[in-house]
Amino acid sequence: MSDLQLAPPPERSPLTSVILAIAILAVAVGALFYFIPRDTAKVTVTNTRIFAPTAQFAAATRKGHGMNVISGAAASTESDLYVVVTVHVENKFRFPVSIDGANATLTAGDGSSPDGSIVQRHDVDRLESIFPALTPMLPHPLGFGDEIAPHTSLEGQFILQFPGLDENAWKSKKSASVSVEMHNQPAQTGALP
Q: Which of 113, 116, 134, 117 is closest to 125 using CA atoms?
């Protein structure tokens, strides 16, 4: 017959359970950092091209439904600077990423920050019909709503417009950058050479 034991069984140390729990947690955190990329999209500026047309207008007044040229009045000129920026957007996430917007910043040689804007894709055709020299610079214009599939990339062009500036203003700039905004992602900024 076996001996009767009235004492409780000896306690096991909780150290084994604690070490096992820490090891499982470390493996789970490591797997999260390995499988989920920390930056979901990467924007790289691959090329910039400058187009700086100067338009000359005869002095005119509007009368009724037409334009009347004023003889003897001085003509006016208008300069705009267009910067065609080619960007490469790489989606490292497992979900599609779409382009929600973009903006440009420029710091001129005199320290001023002239306003610039992105030409919307629906205005690109009109701009190309006015300035046919832009067409070869725009093999794949990007627009808001363009989607990049998971683990793929997209390359295309944005047109930045800086009214009143010319090519010399671009060449003497201190800095310039383009920032691409993506749906549910932080904006990515690339410096412009």
A: 134
Mean pLDDT calculated for residue range 90-109: 87
pLDDT of 133 over the 80 cut: yes
Predicted model pTM: 0.71
> Under a CB-based contact definition with an 8 Å cutoff, are residues 60 and 68 in contact?
yes
pLDDT(109) > 80: yes
Which of 8-12, 128-132, 167-171, 185-189 is the least confident region? Answer: 8-12
Give the chain's domain count. Answer: 1
Residue 160 lies in a domain: yes
Q: Let me know if residue 10 belongs to a domain.
A: no
**In the chain, at which residue ranges do the beta strands (DSSP E only) sit?**
41-51, 54-57, 60-63, 66-69, 76-91, 97-107, 117-118, 147-148, 153-163, 175-182, 188-191
Residue 132 lies in a domain: yes
Q: Which domain holds residue 142?
A: 41-191
Indicate whether 187 belongs to any domain: yes
